[in-house]
């Protein structure tokens, strides 16, 4: 399994940068192995909520995990504010790197991830597809 270490610069949208990094690789699926750094803006959807919580100010990324795909990622983060309070949830678009973000992606070249409706949950859920090996 190949790995892709990333260091993201200030102002970059964290989620978009991860999806773009994957799109530049010869694969369509990956997982965040580790992620730390800081954000100046964050957009989190908390458990069971439909609205997005918008946070501004210095935030530390304590954890970052999830699947990254060319057609739909699912990322979770836990963030600490300047007083040490921690919030976590689904990471949305619009999370801007403050000073740096250091992320390690595991690339899965034999897999394709998609999001498809799941009758049991009522949500679009991860569907795993193993890519066919080339004949030869």
TrEMBL record:
Ranges for domain PPC come to: 1-129
Which superkingdom does the taxonomy of this entry point to? Answer: Bacteria
Q: What Gene3D superfamilies has UniProt attached to this entry?
A: Hypothetical protein, similar to alpha- acetolactate decarboxylase, domain 2
The residues forming the signal peptide are: none
Give the record's keywords alphabetically.
Answer: DNA-binding
Q: Name one GO molecular function term.
A: DNA binding
CDD domains the UniProt entry points to: DUF296 (cd11378)
Instruction: Write the protein's name.
Output: DNA-binding protein
Source organism of the structure: Azohydromonas caseinilytica
- Source taxonomy: Bacteria, Pseudomonadati, Pseudomonadota, Betaproteobacteria, Burkholderiales
């Amino acid at each position: 399994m190949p790995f892709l270490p990333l260091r993201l610069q200030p102002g970059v949208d964290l989620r978009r940068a991860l999806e773009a990094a994957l799109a530049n690789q010869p694969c369509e699926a990956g997982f965040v192995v580790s992620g730390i750094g800081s954000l100046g803006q964050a957009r989190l959807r908390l458990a069971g909520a439909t609205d997005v919580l918008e946070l501004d100010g210095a935030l530390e990324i304590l954890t970052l995990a999830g699947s990254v795909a060319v057609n739909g990622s699912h990322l979770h983060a836990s963030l600490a504010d300047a007083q040490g309070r921690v919030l976590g949830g689904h990471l949305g678009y619009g999370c801007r790197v403050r000073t740096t973000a250091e992320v390690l992606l595991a690339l899965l070249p034999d897999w394709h991830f998609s999001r498809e409706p799941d009758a049991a949950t009522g949500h679009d859920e991860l569907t795993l597809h193993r890519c066919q090996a080339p004949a030869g």
